[in-house]
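Quick log. Single chain, no ligands specified.
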Amino acid sequence: MSSANTVSNLEDTTSLDRNGHENNDCDNVSTGTSNSNIEQENTACEVYSVRKKYLSIMLNLIKEILIMALVAITYAAFKNDPPKIGKSPAAYRFFPEDSYIADWYKGEISDAISQARSADIAFVMFYAPWDAECQHARKEFQRVAKYMHQEVAFAAVNCWQPGSECKTHYSKVNKWPILIAYPSHGRGVQYSGPLIAVHMMKFLKKLMAPFTRTKDIFSLLAKHDVVVAAELYAGTHSREYITFYETTLRLLERDPFQEIAVSVHTHSFYDEYGDQSVPILSLHMWNETLFYPIEEEWTVESLLQWITKHVHQVTTWISPSGAKSLNLANYLQPGPALIFFTPKNPLAIHSDFHSMLREVSLEYNNCEGNPLTHIIQKTVRMERRAKYLEQLKITAECSMQNFKIQKMISPHLWSNTSYCLEKRYESESTYFSESNMVHYYGGINNLCLKLLKNIDEKTVMPSKNCSEINTHKMIYKTSKLTDMSDSKSPENLRKYQRKESCRSFLIAQKYRPLVFSSELYNTDRFNITGLACKTNRTLSLISMDSLYYHHYAEKLGVDLSKMHDNAAVVILDDKMESHYIMSAALTESNLKSFIYNFTYNLLPRSMSSFTTVVSQNTHSYPSDQPCASESGKFCINEVTSNNFLETISQDNIAVIVFYYSKQCSFCNGISHRFLNVARYLSPVDDIQFARIDGDLNLLPWEFTMDIYPTILFVPPNKKSESRVFPVDLPITEPNLIGFILANLESALKLEAMWTLCENTKFTNISDCYSSLRLQTSSVIDKLLQRWRLSSTAHDKSTALSIIYHFHELQTLFIQHSTNYPSVKYHFNKLKLLRQTAKR
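-> predicted structure:
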């Protein structure tokens, strides 16, 4: 074969791969190259071609996979239905249809407010049907509507219905219900008081008449600690009057108990000099009077800010919220506070116990002998007596049955000639003895007998007897010539007013009968004038509703259900972590004596236990069940503040106390270890284990712990040398055993170690007894040194006896003796010798 043919054949074979495909990368082969080089180049080209082929196949495969995935996703997007969301439950009525409340249960807030604005005053409850507070307030809200539906329009709006208008507007509200009263004009007034019907009624009545029109400030100071008085022009377009009216409503919103009285005195547009009159705003308090600066702007915000900034009271009702409230902390953190738990009846004409606290507080805080404060104090005393007589009067009036008013036409002015109900009380003496205190008002005949018995000798009694009151008909004269069916006639208006007064009085009596102090007419009283400035233990005096906030008293160990008139007095000193409970009867003298003894540190600290109070609010474990270890079970005694000191003060007994709290998450695990150690050492009679709930039991300050869990070791007969388990050391069983053994005296420590050797499963019992022998030898060495230093024969003899028993114990330990009675005998002898030596 010629060389030309050979080259041509070679070019043809190298230009194709093994599969016959064209190889573009390896087609330029040099013709002058040797055969061996040509073969090597052909091999490299073949490898390169194979790799390129596989890469191309993989790229094509990836493209196909991506295309298939995209097609699948597109297909699923078109075929699959949207995510299924459950429909919200259908709205349902929260209030019955036959109630006096318009229930907008579908959340139509715009319609509800529009309808509310059409009435003079509307009271609207915004609620969530599932909320427990709303379910509780529902019944109380219905009672208010039933009582006041003729004067106030009532409505309710469901603000939790998904997709509703109210839900959209109030999506960020975190507490329900919200109660807002809407006057016909202006913004709404939110109610922030207790969710109780009588308190809501008082709020609405105050909203109807937010201020009184009088200039008699002293009469208002007899009932309130603070009086806001305004003198201004009240014409048709008086901007100052409108501003003050709105300020009064805002003040009512911040003061749910209506402790701040508001008075208005109007005058003409021009003063006596012919100049335009300037509005005057004054703030009257128990020790000073302040005036609003004339140059300041007369706006709602400025007036409200000035009033709230300068108000200070000697005593006040407080209403803590359901969450952690700063309202109570403001009185407890500056210093000690006296809390007077007494029923709060907002519909009653008076609260005598709170007025008694005001009278005592005025005397207590009158440091400089201010004559104004002294006059207010006397005025409060006379107001209390006047309210007592008013209570007798309204009780007599409302006890009458089949009461009718006759009408007759007369040219004279209409007048009231009710002799038996008015003249009788005008002639009644205000100086009664203690026996005429009425705590419960019965029928009219019993009341009249009490009045006849207690009337002063100088009093001129009316000729009418009490039995004639029920049948006596009231006759009024009028000059108004109207039809008898006129509901707006003076007689009918008077009759309606008296019916409303009696209805309010009966509701107040049903909620809580009004009671008075037994020392209302007593002139011999304890003197504490200016005591607040004589020491650094000045008290803040506050009142709390014992019917609504009784759980606060329960936390202090006071069971108000067992207290007379559900009232109690407690002094709480937050900084000293102590409190004091008044055990005497609630009178002025006893209250002043209680304050005096606290001021001079003469009161014993109360150590009441919550576990002794029957409570429906906080769970507590029973403490009267005996701890008995039966059928392989073991338990620890649960102690309270009533028997805590008795438990740790037992003669020759070492006590280990475990402090825990149900709010402590680590206490459960620690209590199991504490229980195991107590079970190991249970055969030792002179070591006792106990536990106590530190949250529910109030202990002396030296035995009060700040953190939980805490373990306290009290040595025998040495309470003052008590020791606390180190905070930085983990509470494990070995650490706890080491802590106990390190604090025991020699004989008791040796007995505890021997008990652990006998009751604990050690891998090597020899090591345990070796420790016993070393401990015994160390004790004997110390006793020998003491024997050498003894100066009397009796001391040497006692020391030798103790050494003898320790030597016998060492012998038994060397032998690994299981003779339990012998070991126990020597320990008992050592115990007797130790007690004899201490005597």
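The chain has six domains: 1-82, 101-202, 210-313, 314-606, 637-744, 750-838.
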